Amino acid sequence: MPGYTGSKDDYLKRLRRIEGQVRGVQKMVDTDTYCIDILTQVSAITKALQAVSLGLLEDHVAHCVVDAARESDEAAQEKVREAADAIARLVRS
Fold it and tell me: Which CATH superfamily is domain 5-92 in?
């Protein structure tokens, strides 16, 4: 089971809210809204996605990495490597 299972409903609620924000930005572009207003909304969406990402990462470490550490050193190292790779992707984006 994924580490986020206990928070799945919260994540889905956040993602639906983000989806609505993205649709709102599409409408803003369609109606020729002032560019700075659009950029403000894009920034809010980006921060909301970052919050989801950090939550998922925290759940991964708290559950997947901890469970793997209980299993074996090799399994733990693999999960830590996955987490480090995910962090690197988040930092680059």
Answer: Metal-sensitive repressor, helix protomer (1.20.58.1000)
